[in-house]
TrEMBL record, chain A:
Residues 503-595 form the BBS7 platform domain. Residues 21-315 form the BBS7 beta-propeller domain. Pfam families: BBS7_GAE, BBS7_pf, Beta-prop_BBS7. One of its GO terms (biological process) is cilium assembly. This is Bardet-Biedl syndrome 7 protein homolog isoform X1. Residues 328-355 form a coiled coil. Residues 371-481 form the BBS7 GAE domain. GO terms for cellular component: axoneme; BBSome; ciliary basal body; membrane. It comes from Trichoplusia ni. Signal peptide: none annotated. Keywords: Coiled coil. Transmembrane segments: none annotated.
UniProtKB/TrEMBL annotation, chain B:
Residues 690-712 form the BBS2 C-terminal helix bundle domain. It is found in: Cell projection, Cilium; Cytoplasm, Cytoskeleton. GO terms for biological process: non-motile cilium assembly. This is Bardet-Biedl syndrome 2 protein homolog. Its main location: other. Residues 479-572 form the BBS2 platform domain. Residues 24-127 form the Ciliary BBSome complex subunit 2 N-terminal domain. Residues 166-267 form the Ciliary BBSome complex subunit 2 middle region domain. The keyword Metal-binding does not apply. Residues 585-681 form the BBS2 hairpin domain. One of its GO terms (cellular component) is membrane.
Length: 715, 717
């Protein structure tokens, strides 16, 4: 960490969406830059900073939430037009705040990102990318999943434009003229794009930030689109926004994350593929929605940051902060002014509070309808350890969460919060938990996992989890979040159909035919699969991969007919249960047929054999390590030579990497395969004895025995 | 709060593991402080940076040049030091093992004394208190405190209910004499003055640490992660953490707290606000105050369990830890501005809430177009506590005054729920009503504050209103008033005499019991009061009869309850002394059993010890014999080794037996002490003290009959 930056708060606005703060390019060489910010209340503000005090250049009236802000980058001219998108509307403002453009598009979904090049306007909403030339719809392209971000590149010697589009769960595609010309799959789940500032607009190259926290590069060279991961996530939060920060002659990629951290990475502008070097990290405590670099207040550039709850602040080199640039009295005056403002607000709030409370005493019952608390939440699919994470972000500090599920679950939470499992009175099979947060917590995560004994229950349907979110201060209301835990949480990895190679798989197949729509099938599948499913279309095909076993699930469905293929027989069994359950609930008669190959268990077990051996060894090491740690060895006693034999010393020294281990999960899953296989393939005669044998063989890692039992047709 | 980058003023590595909480700093030569710690099961290390400790039992450590090692054959539970010898200012080292205390003069390499401690040793401190002017070693056992002088003579002994976890000497009542503050695992901090308990502070968890702050304040830390400060017996503040506080020390006008995960924070004395925070590289083992650099002022010495030692000077307000003034005024303004923006933001959110509410205020009450967040404005929450005899608990009833429902209720109270301090109710959709019952079962008779958060709305609401209520449960809330008078009041009772008007007693009853309606005296002339109560915990009866002649009789089978009632009444009526006679056959029977048990175990223990010693000797003889045999006859060698193995196994079995008898002995002693403690609590003031003195004597002489006599009529005073 080489840089020393200090925080300076400028102002607050409403809740902001990602990437809605933009710094405008300077008019002259020595003029401070202005910036524009749009918030959820629909207010677009253009501000400049004088002596650390924001000066409003213009400010619009509230309206629909602003979801995207862009600056026009007309070739040859300075970017001086501001475009905002809210709902399906696009508005254009001049530097002075005059509206020169206002169009209402025919798009049905909210515009999430946009691009303006010359007279071309590209809008992304839902799954569609729509291209407007001279404000007329020119062409559009429908992607397989939601469009997350977009970047436009001009084609040399042509008026055509190439679009680099990030598609959720898929990766990136390159479009030209409404046609796909190249695509690449990025498994880390990229969420945000950023084009390096000094490249020619014709070189198609962009950095991406991913939801697993990693940062990488996408480039189009010699007609292929390729991606490369440059920085691993390493437990950092998912990337919300990217920006550029120019300082000391170097370009830095600034990264704003959901966990509230901001990083500066030094980028080698001559060789983008070089590993970026981390130069600075700052924690601001709440998700960062925009980061942008520019000379806003001083001649030297600073990093301007907007957060989810609407704080706007700068990170500026410390030597500038403590320098004599801003006179002391001005700062004091600013402080006094703010104090006055807060005092006024306090009084006003007290008045309103009084009024509100008077209402509660009146005999005439009115209706109190406070607005919903702003809480964003997200349920992630399970990683290889089976834990599913729920992330919550609130605009106001949280006091506690109260969690209910009608089935026992395992739970974990943030280090900044205390999780208590409350005893439940009634049936004993449900779970009540409270999570008390530290003061000032605005984001909190909980991890949930099926316990092994309730896993059987969850094979019939997804589980509903209710989370009540209680804020620390006013307003005294609790928001209810309702989540559905899918029955197959492990199928969280997306894969394209082409990349399935490498393993020899024996696929079991489930066919469902009946009088149902694609939308209905999609809703049934939400009971089973984590993450977002593709939006209903006439024909849908997608592939998911089990994050622990790496078995696959291929889903193909259309109106009235669906086929599911998997090399994991339990998956097929669960899907069958869910589809039949859901169809009964909806009163739709469906015909379910399945085809289970005889060798499905054996083949699948052969695929995981190596993994199984590794996990078995890890498990053994773990047991050994526990035993050694109980001996309470004194590491300082080594003068008489090594205490432990080599093997034990290796286990003892392998510090933390074997704490997590999925051996027991694996054993259970393989056992379940066998049981499901016996049930589904109608070898339904007594196999209790065999399954006990199998379990024993698995536990002792006697693989020959395991294979023998798995391949035996009838005992 | 970010971890600050405070640099320690000194830093050293002991290269030894350190057992948490068994660390002390002593001046063995009278001037130079030496860090002394338990390293592993039976090893003590002494760090002497100022030149070597003389030769003797301590051996120079291989791992570190300035560290000496001292090996004992017993587990080390506690370490303490102090100038016990009146003729010298050199610190003596006190080593506590599970059943023994050894006082050792490190400088002279001599043992001062060696003493058996049948009550066990949990904590040792040195200090003077009360009338004793010389420095004493004060030992906290499983249910007793004991003070011994430098020759090993017992100067003082008393029973404490619960295992003693922390002791300090502190002038609690500001009379110029120190009292003993004792924290025990039954969640009480007790003040012992002149061999009698003058105050009892109820806390919410086992007390792990106590530390004096100044003349009137002391700090405490609990096993549930709470730390706080008391001023003159009133809690100033407390904070709770996930971690356990390992040690707390007052350093430079701040309270430094060392958490078991290696985090140390400095907090403001009056509010508990965190000023600075550091994180050690390993889990913490101890934090002590000592002038380790010999600069004239004590530094905070933090020791991690890996043997890293860090020293921090006292915190200073203006300059922080570094003498360079880092905070420029402009910086301060900027921080203030950031703070102000925080405030502004919070206020704006609240204001928006009211505005949006007013905007939609005239929506109709119709359920059809009701928004998902709506609720009638005049909704109110009512609460009542009723006794539920069938389920043996208190029922907390929460209800709204209209058709809205109680979606969920969270009850926060400390010390009355089995796991944690939260209890939640979340009825199933079919059972949603505007009334919700929450059962409460306070396990002990102390006043409890109950905070309730109820979520109120319509069944299909997406957002619920939070209603918060606080209710104080009186001390004896688990007793329900019975209307009928009983004839047979049982043969367990305590009798005493008070001279007080019935009217005042009536007020005491109203304050301390949960009654459906207040007890009222019919006329001024009434001189008697008879109350019958039912305990909801075990369905037993309690009768309180206040006679016209001042005779009071509490009839209950529970000696503890009788004691609690007497203590509570004595505090209310401001009685300094109270003598009573008691009949508690259950307690007496138990006392007989335990006494017998203890003496039996004592015999068994000495027999076992003898057997073990014998076998150990045999092994030491056989081993060399086996080694010799290797030279001439392999078969002979094998046989001898087999014998060794067999003997070893026998030794191990013997060891298990000894361990279990030891555990039994401790348990018996503990329950014995608990009964004695309860007998003491039936009396107040000097009569209580007399019971302690008399029963100590009786226990030592193993006189069961005398003990029972003492319990019945009190000690002679």
């Amino acid at each position: 960490m080489d840089y020393d930056l200090a925080r300076i708060d400028y102002t607050v606005c409403g809740i902001t969406y990602p990437d809605t703060l933009k710094i405008m390019s300077p008019l002259g060489p020595k003029v401070d830059q202005k910036f524009a910010i749009g918030d959820k209340n629909g207010v677009l503000q253009c501000l400049s900073i004088k002596d650390e005090e924001p000066v409003v250049q213009f400010k619009t009236l509230p309206g629909k939430p602003i979801t995207s802000v862009q600056l026009a980058t007309t070739a040859g001219q300075q970017a001086d037009k501001i475009f905002t998108a809210s709902g399906n509307e696009v508005k254009g403002y001049t530097r002075k705040g005059k509206v020169f453009l206002c169009i209402e598009t025919a798009l049905t979904e909210t515009i999430t990102s946009m691009c303006i090049i010359g007279n071309d306007l590209i809008l992304c909403s839902g799954r569609t990318v729509t291209f407007y030339r001279d404000l007329r719809e020119y062409n559009s392209y429908v992607c397989e999943d939601r469009v997350l971000d977009i970047a436009a590149f001009a084609v040399p010697n042509s008026t055509r434009i190439r679009l680099l589009v990030l598609v959720a769960n898929k990766g990136a595609v390159l479009l030209e003229n409404g046609k796909l010309i190249a695509r690449t799959v990025i498994s880390s789940g990229p969420s945000r794009l950023s084009v390096p500032p000094s490249t020619h607009v014709t070189d198609i190259v962009a950095f991406y930030g991913a939801s697993d926290g990693s940062i990488g590069l996408i480039a189009y060279e010699e007609l292929t689109l390729s991606s490369k991961c440059l920085v691993d996530g390493r437990g950092l939060g998912s990337v919300v926004c990217l920006g550029w920060y120019y300082n000391n002659g170097n370009f830095h990629l600034s990264v704003g994350r959901h966990d509230g951290s901001i990083q500066l990475y030094l980028i080698d502008m001559d060789n983008f593929g070089e590993k970026p070097r981390l130069k600075y990290t700052y924690f601001c405590g709440e998700p960062v929605t925009s980061v942008a670099g520019g000379c806003v207040s001083t001649e030297e550039s600073e990093l301007l940051v907007a957060t989810f709850s609407g704080r706007i602040f700068a990170l500026r080199a410390s030597h500038l902060v403590s320098g004599v640039k801003v006179p002391q009295d001005i700062l004091a005056a600013r402080r006094a002014k703010l104090e006055g403002e807060v005092a006024r607000l306090e009084k006003q709030t007290a008045n309103e509070r009084e009024k509100y409370q008077q209402n509660t005493r009146s005999l005439h019952a009115g209706l109190s309808t406070p607005p919903l608390l702003d809480v964003q939440h997200e349920l992630l699919g399970a990683g290889s350890d089976g834990w599913q994470e729920v992330r919550m972000t609130s605009a106001v500090p949280l006091d506690m969460l109260f969690i209910y599920c009608n089935q026992k679950l395992q739970m974990q939470t943030d280090t900044a919060a205390v999780l208590t499992i409350c005893s439940s009175m009634e049936t004993g099979s449900d779970i009540l938990a409270s999570v008390r947060c530290q003061a000032g917590t605005r984001r909190v995560w909980i991890k949930i996992r099926y316990t092994s004994d309730t896993f059987i229950n969850s094979r019939l349907e997804g589980k509903r989890v209710l989370i009540y979110v209680l804020p620390a201060g006013a307003p005294r209301v609790a928001r209810l979040l309702s989540l559905k835990l899918p029955a197959l949480p492990y199928y969280s990895k997306h894969e394209s159909e082409k990349d399935l190679g490498s393993y020899e798989r024996t696929l079991s197949q489930l066919q469902v035919s009946g009088n149902y729509s694609v939308a209905e099938m999609t809703s049934w599948l939400t009971e089973a699969l984590p993450g977002e499913l593709p939006r209903p279309a006439s024909e849908i095909t997608f592939v998911r991969i089990h994050s622990l076993l790496e078995t696959i699930l291929i889903c193909e469905y259309q109106r009235g007919n669906a086929t599911f293929k998997s090399d994991n027989v339990s998956t097929i069994a669960v899907l069958r249960n869910i589809v039949s359950n859901c169809s009964v609930e909806k009163n739709i008669s469906v015909e379910i047929t399945f085809d289970i190959p005889e060798d499905c268990c054996v083949q699948s077990f052969k695929n995981i054999e190596n993994k199984f051996k590794v996990e078995y060894q890890k498990n053994k090491d773990l047991i050994l390590k526990n035993a050694i740690s109980m001996l309470d060895l004194d590491s300082s006693m080594n003068e008489e030579g090594p205490l432990l034999c080599q093997e034990y010393a290796r286990v003892w020294d392998s510090k933390d990497n074997i704490i997590k281990n999925q051996f027991n999960d694996l054993v259970e899953m393989v056992l379940q395969w066998y049981l499901d296989w016996r049930t589904l393939s109608l070898h339904n005669d007594n196999y209790g004895n065999e399954s006990t044998k199998l379990q024993a063989a698995l536990k002792d890692c006697r693989l020959d025995n395991v294979l023998k039992i798995l391949s035996s047709k009838n005992s | 709060m970010q971890i600050s980058t405070v640099q320690p003023v000194f830093k050293l590595e002991l290269n030894h593991k350190v057992t948490p909480n068994v660390v002390t700093i002593a001046k063995y030569d009278g001037t130079h402080p030496c860090l002394t710690a338990a390293a592993g099961y039976d090893k003590i290390i002494i760090h002497h940076p100022h030149g070597g400790v003389g030769t003797g039992r301590a051996q120079r450590s291989q791992a570190h040049g300035e560290v000496s090692e001292l090996n004992l054959s017993q587990a080390i539970i506690a370490l303490a030091c102090g100038p016990l010898k009146t003729d010298s200012n050199r610190d003596m080292l006190l080593i506590g093992s599970p059943t023994q205390i050894l006082a050792y003069d490190v400088h002279d390499n001599t043992d001062l004394f060696f003493k058996e401690a049948p009550d066990g040793v949990n904590v040792i401190i040195t200090g003077s208190f009360g009338k004793h002017t010389e420095t004493l070693a004060i030992i906290g056992g499983n249910s007793s405190v004991q003070a011994i002088d430098w020759e090993g003579n017992e100067v003082f002994w008393n029973v404490v209910s619960g295992k003693v976890c922390a002791i300090i000497t502190f002038d609690f009542d500001k009379d110029g004499e120190n009292e003993l503050l004792i924290g025990s695992d039954d969640s009480f901090i007790r003040v012992l003055k002149n061999n009698q308990f003058i105050a009892e502070i109820s806390e919410t968890g086992p007390i792990l640490s106590l530390s004096p702050v100044n003349e009137v304040r002391f700090a405490y830390g609990l096993a549930n992660g709470t730390i706080g400060i008391y001023e003159e017996g009133i809690r100033l503040w407390r904070v709770k953490s996930k971690q356990n506080a390992l040690a707390i020390q007052w350093s430079g006008d701040t309270l430094a707290c060392c958490w078991s995960n290696g985090r140390v924070d400095w907090r403001e004395g009056t509010t508990g606000r965190v000023l600075r925070r550091i994180q050690m590289r390993a889990n913490a083992a101890a934090m002590l105050l000592a002038d380790y650099r010999s600069v004239g002022a004590p530094d905070l010495v933090c020791v991690s369990d890996k043997g890293e030692v860090l020293g921090y000077p006292p915190y200073q307000e203006t300059a922080g830890f570094n003498s360079v003034a880092k905070n420029l005024p402009s910086e301060e303004d900027r921080q203030a501005i950031t703070e102000l923006f925080n405030k502004k933001q919070a206020l704006m959110v609240e204001l928006q809430h009211y505005e949006a509410n007013a905007a939609s205020g005239n929506a109709s009450l119709d359920s059809l177009d009701r928004p998902a967040t709506a609720m009638p404005t005049n909704t109110r929450l009512q609460m009542a506590i009723v006794h539920s005899e069938d389920e043996g608990c208190l029922q907390l009833a929460i209800s709204t005054n209209n058709e809205t429902i109680v979606r969920a209720a969270l009850v926060l109270a400390e010390g009355i729920f089995e796991n944690g301090e939260t209890f939640a109710r979340h009825p199933r959709p079919s059972q949603l009503r505007s009334l919700l019952h929450v059962p409460l079962r306070p396990p002990r008779d102390v006043p409890v504050d109950v905070h309730i958060k109820a979520l109120i709305g319509y069944p299909d609401s997406e957002q619920f209103h939070i209603f918060e209520l606080t209710k104080q449960l009186p001390r004896f809330s688990m007793y329900r008033l019975l209307s009928k008078e009983a004839r047979n009041k049982g043969n367990s009772y305590v009798l005493f005499r008070i001279t007080e008007r019935v009217q005042r007693i009536c007020i005491w009853v109203n304050q301390n019991f949960l009654l459906e309606e207040e007890l009222d005296i019919e006329s001024e002339e009434t001189k008697e009061l008879h109350i019958s109560l039912l305990c909801l915990r075990d369905q037993s009866y309690l009768y309180m009869d206040f006679g016209a002649d001042g005779q009071v009789r509490f009839s209950t089978h529970d000696i503890r309850l009788a004691g609690d009632l007497i203590q509570s009444l004595a505090v209310y009526l401001n009685l300094s002394e109270l003598q009573s006679t008691a009949q508690f056959p259950e307690a007496e029977k138990k006392l007989r059993e335990e006494m017998e048990h203890v003496s039996q175990i004592g015999e068994a223990r000495s027999r076992l010890a003898a057997e073990t010693a014998e076998r150990a000797q045999l092994i030491t003889a056989l081993l060399p014999a086996a080694q010799d045999a290797a030279a001439y006859d392999l078969r002979e060698m094998l046989n001898r080794y087999k014998e060794v193995v067999m003997l070893n196994e026998e030794l191990l079995t013997g060891c298990y037996i000894r361990r279990s008898t030891q555990e039994q002995a401790v348990a018996s002693l503990k329950s014995l002490h608990t009964i004695l403690q309860q007998a003491v609590r039936l009396r107040v003031g000097k009569y209580g003290k007399a019971v302690v003195a008399a029963s100590r004597k009786a226990v030592q002489s193993n006189n069961i009959e005398a003990l029972i006599k003492i319990m019945q009529v009190g000690g002679d005073s």
